[in-house]
Amino acid sequence: MHNRHKYRRAFLAAFPNTLPILTGFAFLGFAYGLLMSTSGYGPIWSFLMSSIAFCGSMQFVAITLLTSPFAPLQAFYMALMVNARHLFYGLSMLEKYKGIGRIKPFLIYVLCDETFSIVNSKEPPQGVDRAAFYFFVSFLDYSYWVIASTMGGLLGSAIQFNTKGLDFVLTALFVVIFLEQWLEGGNHFSASAGIASSIICLMLFGAGNFIIPSMLLLLLVLTFYRKYYKGEPSSCT
């Protein structure tokens, strides 16, 4: 009975924080399922890709890879470029997930940009179990994407409309999350450093190759900042 009450409180605390993710994933996941269906892959493939791979933007790229001649090196390079950011923000979660218990492998497996933005910036309310709160944030975000993409696959053959521009939902979602963290945070150094690093590397390396260099530059800047700044910098990234 105690555990049931604990999980209920954690769920009620986590769910409101995931509502912006639900909105974005509902549209974007559905669009992904539609695109998979129109490319000749049924709903079971949308479900398997979303539940096993669970890599958002890379899943859209994978549609092109699946419908193109087999090129493993190109697929590897594309996956590395698109998902390299996971290496950086994954490392930053080591302390956050320390001592979290048996659910840690699951939390690592389903960690995505949107879940990271919530878990990294939100603390469980007083009286709410930390592990349960992080679990429900992660599980809800994961479920939104899997369900939406599966529904898109199921209805893909019945619904015909132009999906051009739907992928902008994810960009809009990131902007909303960024602004919320900016307004809540007191120290905007890490956010400003992230913007500056991205702009500099975009100018130097171009739109197709700036992600990894900007991540490396930001890592160097924040490492230097943490070393010489007394106190913790803001988590707003």
TrEMBL record:
Major localisation: membrane
BP terms from Gene Ontology: L-valine transmembrane transport
Compartments where found: Cell membrane
Keyword Protein biosynthesis: no
Pfam family, one: AzlC
Mode of membrane association: Multi-pass membrane protein
Source organism superkingdom: Bacteria
Transmembrane domains' residue ranges: 12-32, 44-63, 75-94, 131-154, 166-183, 195-225
GO cellular component: plasma membrane
InterPro entries: Brnchd-chn_aa_trnsp_permease
Alphabetic keyword roster: Cell membrane, Membrane, Transmembrane, Transmembrane helix, Transport
Family listed: Belongs to the AzlC family.
Protein name (record): 4-azaleucine resistance probable transporter AzlC
